[in-house]
Amino acid sequence: MQKEMKFGTKAIHAGLEPDPATGAIMTPIYQTSTYVQDGVGNHKGYEYSRTLNPTRHALEKNLAAIENGKFGACFGSGLAAMDCVIKMLNPGDEVISTNDLYGGSYRIFTTIFEKYGIKFHFVPMHNTKAIEEKINANTKLIWVETPTNPMMNIIDIKAVAVIAKKNNILLAVDNTFATPYLQNPLDLGADIVMHSVTKYLGGHSDVVMGALVVNDEKLAKEIYRIQNSSGAVCGPQDAFLVLRGIKTLHLRVQRHCENGKKIAEFLNTHPKVDKVYWPGLPTHPNHAIAKAQMRGFGGMVSFTLKGNKLEDALNVVKKVEIFALAESLGGVESLIGHPATMTHAAIPKAEREKTGVVDSLIRLSVGVEDVDDLLADLANALN
């Protein structure tokens, strides 16, 4: 029945049942570490909360449903979810990833896993030929992020999936910016979908969590094995908060998209703004692919200032009043950030500037406030 549900209905109901003990419509917070068994090996499906917890289990089923997948797994953070994926590899294996990548992803790849003999290649993935040039017998994973952070580049998931399948390579897609409401990578041929649940799925800047969703049972068993063995799971309170957040995901993201569009268009005509990066603009590279694989263009907008001076960018982020200067994104409140000194400081200057992360680049996470107030706030800061 769940496959026939529209997205909004799945977000509220999929994988969830009233509490059998009390009839409570909200999934209870099972704040317990262990479970009493009737006899050795005779239990109700739960033995120890690192392995499985009813609140987390409900969220994992709900996440799988809204991503059109069969199996979900939740972790203590988005990076813990990534950690699980890379732990499926062996020394000598190689990974191809986009060169325009979230700084934390770049850091875990290069400073944690490279020393264990895993090799990473960072290429401009909006050109699929760049991927094919790096494929060899040792390539075991392609890691895609689309839209990318912070340049909003669009990568053709379906085209990359064809390359991955042809070469028997796993394809993982970080779907954090798009959310399952706007994009479903499994439907486009991906093997693994990853989310920083901290962002839009939680949606209220009050939880840190990550998730993986897959369709393949063998792959799911390996993910659960690593999840249980490494223990980087989320707690039941956090799972409860995200279940609550997902119930309004479709409503929130729709407003994020509407506000993002108006702000991108405002910035695009402002005399002090040089370039605007938002996939919904017809001038955006790969705009046509964004239209084909996404149902909307999201609330993440990046832009640069004319003259490309660091002090000008720092002045803008200091002068805003409604936009809050903070790390992260995807909450109901609008945030502003300076990638070169914040989210992408882990990437060497020469490397980040090759991808467009220059000193004047500013990233906006456009919230769900009244857009006229947001526009006035940006106009004041820019002027």
Structure keywords:
383 residues; alpha/beta; Aspartate Aminotransferase, domain 2; Aspartate Aminotransferase, domain 1; 2 domains; seven-stranded mixed sheet; 14 helices; 12 strands; 36% helix; globular
Classified in CATH, the superfamily of the largest domain is Type I PLP-dependent aspartate aminotransferase-like (Major domain)
**DSSP helix fraction:** 25-40%
Distance from N terminus to C terminus (CA atoms, Å) equals 54 Å
DSSP, total strands = 12
- Radius of gyration (CA) equals 21 Å
Topology:
Layout: H1 7-13, H2 54-66, E1 71-75, H3 78-86, E2 94-98, H4 103-113, E3 119-123, H5 128-132, E4 139-145, H6 157-166, E5 170-174, H7 179-182, E6 192-196, E7 210-214, H8 217-230, H9 236-246, H10 249-268, E8 273-277, H11 287-293, E9 300-305, H12 310-319, E10 324-325, E11 335-337, H13 349-354, E12 362-365, H14 371-382
Parallel strand pairs: 2-3, 2-4, 4-5, 5-6, 10-11
Antiparallel strand pairs: 1-7, 6-7, 8-9, 9-12, 11-12
How would you describe what is shown here?
With 383 residues, the chain is α/β, with parallel strands linked by helices. It folds into two domains: 2-246, Type I PLP-dependent aspartate aminotransferase-like (Major domain) (Aspartate Aminotransferase, domain 2), CATH 3.40.640; 250-382, Alpha-Beta Complex (Aspartate Aminotransferase, domain 1). It is 36% helix and 15% strand. The protein contains 14 helices and twelve strands. The protein has helices at residues 7-13, 54-66, 78-86, 103-113, 128-132, 157-166, 179-182, 217-230, 236-246, 249-268, 287-293, 310-319, 349-354, 371-382; strands at residues 71-75, 94-98, 119-123, 139-145, 170-174, 192-196, 210-214, 273-277, 300-305, 324-325, 335-337, 362-365. A seven-stranded mixed β-sheet has the order 1-7-6-5-4-2-3, with helices on both faces. A five-stranded mixed β-sheet has the order 8-9-12-11-10, with helices on one face. β2, α4 (103-113) and β3 form a beta-alpha-beta unit. α1 packs antiparallel against α2 and α12 crosses α14. The N and C termini lie far apart (54 Å). The relative contact order is 0.13. The model has no long low-confidence stretch (mean pLDDT 96).
